[in-house]
Amino acid sequence: MDKGVIVTNRGGISGRRWTEVPIEATIRVLGFSTIGFVLLIFLFLLREGLPIFYEVPTGNLFGTRWYPTFELFGTLPLLLGSILVTVTAILIALPLGVATAVFVRELAPDWVREILKPMIEVLAGIPSVVLGFFGMHFVAPLIRNIFGAPTGLTVFTGALILAYMALPTIISVAEDALDTVPKSYRDAGLAMGATQWQTIWKVVVPAARSGILMAVMLGMGRAIGETMAVMMVTGNAARLPLTFDSLFRPARTMTATIAAEMGEVAQGSTHYHALFGIGIILFVLTFLINLTAASAIFRKQRRGGLR
Amino acid sequence: MEKFRVESLNFFYGRVAALKDISLSVQERQITALIGPSGCGKSTFLRCLNRMNDTIRGTRVQGKIFLDGQDIYKSGINVVELRQRVGMVFQRPNPFPQSIWDNVAFGPRVLGLDKHFHLPEIIENSLRGAALWEEVKDRLKQDALSLSLGQQQRLCIARTIAVRPEIILMDEPCSALDPIATLQIEELMQSLKKDYTLVIVTHNMQQAARVSDWTGFFWMGELVEFDVTEKIFTRPAQQLTEDYITGRAG
User: Fold this and answer.
1) CB distance A194–B106 less than 8 Å?
2) Is residue A221 predicted with pLDDT exceeding 50?
3) What's CA A1's distance to the chain center, in Å?
4) Angstrom distances, CA of residue A244 to CA of A137, A143, A241, B113
5) CA-based Rg of chain A, rounded to a whole angstrom?
6) Domains (range + CATH), chain B
7) Which of A157, A250, B161, B248 has the least C-beta neighbours within 10 A?
8) CB A233 within 8 A of CB A161
9) Strands, DSSP E only, in chain B?
C-alpha cells in the first residue's frame, strides 16, 4: 500500500505530505474513540448494574413481583411485558411492512413511488413523545370502547404505537432487500406463465427473505428499546402478562421502568443497581437481536449476495 | 405447419424505433435462428413473441403477430396463458435460489398441473428432456445455484418444458457458457426439436449454421433476409448478409 503512495506522491521522504499526517491522526483518533466510548458505557453499565446480581438472591431477582419499596425486585413481569409488547408490535408491523414494501417496489407506478418513499422516511422522523401523546388521546379511548377494556392503556395500545414506529425501518430495509432481487428472477417467473402476483410471492419475496428477516430484526431492535411512547400508553402496571386477556391489560416494560423510576432512586442503593441491572438485560437482548440480524447478513454475503 | 406469422411488426422504446417492418413466419417443430450484430433488435423481436416486452415501461408495438392464427397483441388476449404456451430461456442462467426440485416444480405448481399429474413424474421427465436427469437425480434437494453454469442453463430449460409449452424461445442461451456446455445445449436443441418449436437468438453464426433450419438476419432493426439456413449461409440473396456472415460487416 505504501509503495503505491511513494510512486504517486512526490511530496516528501515518507511518501506523504506533512500536512496529511495530523489530519490522518485526527481521523484515526475519532474513529477509535467511538469504539472507546461504547466500551466505556458498557463498562459503566456493568459496574453499576452487576452488584444487583449478588446483592439480591436470584429467586427474588427473577421473581414475579416488582415492588422496590418492599425490596422485591422480580424482573420477570418487566421482561415478559417488554417481550409481549415487542412481539405483538412486530406481528402487526411485519405483514403491513412487507406488503407496503412489495407495493412500493413492485406494483406502484413511478410517480406514486416518488411520493411514498419520502413520506415513509418522514414517518420515521416523528418524535416518539408525539406518538405517545397521540396514542394516549386517540388510540387508547378507541381500544377502551372497541374491546371493552377497563382502561385503554394496554399492551395492545403500546404494540400498535410501536408497530407504527417500527414500520418505516421494516419498509425501507425490506424494500432494499426486494431491490437486490435480480430482474432475471422476475423475468423467469413471468416467462413461465406465472402471474405477477405469483411471481412476487413465490419468487421475489422468498429470494429476499434474509433481507426481510433483517428488516424484522432491526424493527424489533427499535421496538424493544423504545421508551417514551411505550411508557405513555401501556399503563405501567408491573403485572405478569400470562393470562389470555393480557393483551388488553396494562403491562410495564423494562425501558419504561428505568425511565419512570430513575428520578426517585438514591444513587448506590439496591434499587439503583436494580435499574442498571435491567439495563444490562436490555442491552444483552438488543445485542442478541442485532447478532441474529448480522448473522443473516453474513450468511447472505457468503452465498455471494442475492444474485 | 406455420406456428408464428409476423406481419409488419414495428417496435418502439419510447420514440426510438427498435424494429422496423418485420415480417416472417416460424415453422412448427423446426429451429429458427435469429442472427445479427449487438443492438440489431433480434432479442427485442424474440421478446415480442411472448410479450415479455410488456414488462418494460414506455414500449409500444405496431403490427401483428399470429400464433396458430390468433393475434397475440389483440386486446383480450390472456398474456399469462400466452406465456404458458411460449416458454423462454434467458441469456444468463437464472434458476431461482431454491432447490433443483423446487425450480422444476415451480411452473407446474403455479399452473396447478401438480393436482392432475404426478409431480415426481413431471420433474423426472423434464430433467430427462433437458439431459440433466443423470447428473442430478441423487441431489434434487440441493440448491440450484450449486450447479455449474451449463447445468443451470439446462435446469432452466427443464423448468421451461415442465409446463409443456408449444414453443421455446432462447435468447443467446450459450453466451455465458464454455464450449463443452455450449455443445451440450446445442445437442439438446436437436432433441427438443422433435416436440417443440424453437426460436433462438444467437450472436454466434456457426451455431446458427449448425443447429437451425431457418435463419433470419437482423441489421439495425430491420430484417435483411430470412430463408432456409443452408441458403443464407451458402447463397445469400443480399450483399449485406454475405458481408456479415463472411465477417466484412458488423
Assistant:
1) yes
2) yes
3) 39
4) 26, 17, 8, 44
5) 24
6) 2-245 (3.40.50.300)
7) B248
8) yes
9) 2-13, 16-27, 31-35, 59-67, 70-71, 86-89, 167-171, 197-201, 214-219, 222-228
Q: Which of residues 132-191 of B touch A (CB under 8 A)?
A: 145, 156, 159-160, 163
β-strands B31-35, A72-73: how paired?
A: unpaired
CB-nearest partner of B106 from A187, A192, A207:
A192
Cα distance between residue B20 and residue B14, in whole Å: 14
Residues 168-197 of chain A with CB under 8 A from chain B are: 182, 184-195
Q: How far is A199 from chain B (nearest CA, A)?
A: 9
Q: Could you tell me which residues come within 8 angstroms of residue B46 by beta carbon, excluding any fewer than 6 positions away?
A: B34, B88, B169, B171, B199, B201
Strand partners, B71: B66
User: Whose CA is closest to B82, among B66, B102, B96?
Assistant: B66
**Does residue A209 sit at the B interface (CB-CB below 8 Å)?**
no
Calpha distance B133→B140 (Å, rounded): 9
* B87–chain A nearest CA distance, Å: 6
CATH number of A58-306: 1.10.3720.10
Which residues, in sequence order, are bridge partners of residue A67? A72
Is the Cβ pair A192, B159 closer than 8 Å? yes
Mean pLDDT of B90-114: 93
Answer yes or no: do B110 and A194 touch at CB < 8 A: yes
Best mutation target, B46, B94, B168, to test chain A (most A CBs within 10 A): B94
Which backbone phi and psi does B117 adopt, to 5 degrees? Answer: -120, 165
- Mind giving me the DSSP string for A265-302? SPTTSHHHHHHHHHHHHHHHHHHHHHHHHHHHHHHHHH
Nearest CB partner across the interface for B84, out of A188, A193, A207: A193
Q: How far is A208 from chain B (nearest CA, A)?
A: 10
Please give the pLDDT value at position A303.
Answer: 52
Distance from C-alpha of A217 to C-alpha of A86, rounded to nearest angstrom? 11
Residue B157 has pLDDT above 60, yes or no: yes
pTM of the model as a whole: 0.81
Q: pLDDT band at residue A222, thresholds of 50, 70 and 90? A: confident
> Are the CB atoms for A49 and A276 separated by under 8 Å?
yes
Chain A CA closest to residue B82: A193
